[in-house]
Amino acid sequence: MSRSIIQIQHLTKVFPTSSGDLTALDDVSLDIQAGDIFGIIGLSGAGKSTLVRCMNLLERPTSGTILVDGRDLTTLSQRELRLARRDVTMIFQSFNLLMQRTCLQNVCFPMEIAGVSKARSRERAQALLARVGLADKADAYPIQLSGGQKQRVAIARALATDPKVLLCDEATSALDPTTTSSILSLLKELNQELGVTVVIITHQMSVIEEICSRVAILDGGVVAEQGDVQSIFSSPSTDAARRLVYPGGVRVEQVPPSSRAVRISFNGGTVYQPLIASLAIDCGVKVNILGADTRDISGHAFGTMLLSLPEDPNDAAKALSYIRSQPNITAEEVEYHA
Amino acid sequence: MLDIFTCAFWSEYGQLLLQGVRDTAVMTGVSTVFSYLLGLPLGVLLVLTADHGIRPCRAVNRCVGWVINIGRSLPFLILMIAIMDFTKLIVGTKLGVRGAVVPLVVSAAPFIARMVETALNEVDAGVVEAAQSMGASTFQIVWRVYLPEAMPSLILGGSISIITILAYTAIAGSVGAGGLGALAIQYGYQRNVPAMMLVTVVLLVVLVQILQSVFSRLSTRIDKRLK
I need a labelling partner for A25 at 20 to 30 A (CA). Which of A63, A231, A262, A269 fits? Predict the structure, then answer.
């Protein structure tokens, strides 16, 4: 039985600006389970960074509550809040390491803040650096490290106070794809080893795909959708979700005139069925692929394909019923708009 | 001009010049220490209370800024004369090395506050935010983030401050303080000994060169971003 580690209820954040109030977050409610890897995705300006900064109260919400492990952060005193922040640590897009300190001293930093003895914190920092694969860089300065290495040091530093939640604010956005993958798999390992809940803020769908189990889609300061990554990927029900899941992907406007079109969705069949080929073989009906955007999420096929049905109404009906009879595939006929 | 190479010149003025260098060094050193004791906290206060600082407080920020601007808008010579009574109240005399330290500090502290403000503002806001996210207190952020991270820049600012104070001591020399400035005016100008003017100027130039290169080297050596 899982329990909530972060519960956000009716969170609203308004920034007063010279040209009127700007509502960055509008009545956001989220529930993040302990031990999850939770993704928050949205385009820039959607309010992601503001939302994640509310989770450790770097931003104080205009209204609403933020419960971390059952405690409402907004009611804590400054002192209590500083203690609570040791449980909800953070890594950043720009790493934010102390440039005048060695890697080891950087990892020691949060423990210095917390008043851990020097000997103990050095020992723990060594162990953490070893865990992120940088034992040999203990005495190096951040300037001597690559981006991926800097983020590893930042991760070690964020884990120093043994947090319950690790917030990742666009933590891989400044990294190349290979380094991104290695950082993401490190986060996944740490999540499994330590049980630390990971909250990932990103604008990259690929990041969500790779490690998140649940996702919330933030659009214009509002949670458009939240749920299992698989169900949201297979059937995004809002425009915001569709824009993110199929960026520049299949659109109805691409259907040529005078033909019927059908949008089929692959909802996670274990193997990628050769649907179009079997359609041609089993029914003798040929269809055109107008567009396709499919992806493999932990061994399951997800995505959509837009097919143009044959002009002959019988063939079209035959094809449609064949497609609908397949497991893990749903089909909806799409209207053509002139 | 050639008489600076004669024994007669040095036996007559050598002791005076030595004393002048000593007075200048003491005035500069003591004033720099006290100016930083005053200017450093003011600079930190300016950064913390700024609108985007970690403890924004517009009233305090504007007040401190205003006082600093007043201090900086008075030319040193005028300030020195204007606060003579205050100087006497603090150190008991308007004259000599002691009398010069008070106006030097009053004049340099606001300058140093701005210098410190600039140096601290160079610290990446993200690093400060990271420290906040770890639960660091304001004091811890100042002591463990702002000051160490800005140290190379603070040291370079220090060289500018100390050289400015050195220049001010020469001005103070014209109004009763000792030091090389006083020698240049009394002997080089009023008694018309051109060699004294030349020697004091050379000594001032050498002092500035030494200070600048020591501080620059120190700043480079401690800056871990340059490795």
Answer: A231
Q: For every one of its 338 residues, what pLDDT tens digit does chain A have, with 9 covering 90 and above? A: 478 999 999 999 999 888 889 899 999 999 999 999 999 998 888 899 999 999 999 999 999 999 999 999 999 999 999 999 999 999 999 999 999 999 999 999 999 999 999 999 999 999 999 999 999 999 999 999 999 999 999 999 999 999 999 999 999 999 999 999 999 999 999 999 999 999 999 988 889 989 999 999 999 899 999 999 888 877 788 888 877 776 655 544 444 555 677 878 777 765 556 777 888 888 888 787 777 777 777 667 777 777 878 878 888 888 888 888 887 787 877 765 43
Instruction: Inspect the interface and report whether the beta carbons of A141 and B227 lie closer than 8 Å.
Output: yes
Q: What is the CATH number of the domain that holds B75?
A: 1.10.3720.10
User: How close A179 comes to chain B (CA, Å)?
Assistant: 22
Structural domain that includes position B170:
2-226
Number of domains composing chain B: 1
What residue in B sits closest to A56 (Cα-Cα)? B133
pTM: 0.82
Contacts of B127 in chain A (CB under 8 A): 96-99
B124–A96 CB contact, under 8 Å: yes
Mind spelling out the 3-state secondary structure of chain A?
CCCEEEEEEEEEEEEEECCEEEEEEEEEEEEEECCCEEEEECCCCCCHHHHHHHCCCCCCCCEEEEEECCEEHHHCCHHHHHHHHHHEEEEECCCCCCCCCCHHHHHHHHHHHHCCCHHHHHHHHHHHHHHCCCHHHCCCCHHHCCHHHHHHHHHHHHHCCCCCEEEEECCCCCCCHHHHHHHHHHHHHHHHHHCCEEEEEECCHHHHHHHCCEEEEEECCEEEEEEEHHHHHHCCCCHHHHHHHCCCCCCHHHCCCCCCEEEEEEEEECCCCCHHHHHHHHHCCCCEEEEEEEEEECCEEEEEEEEECCCCHHHHHHHHHHHHHCCCEEEEEECCCC
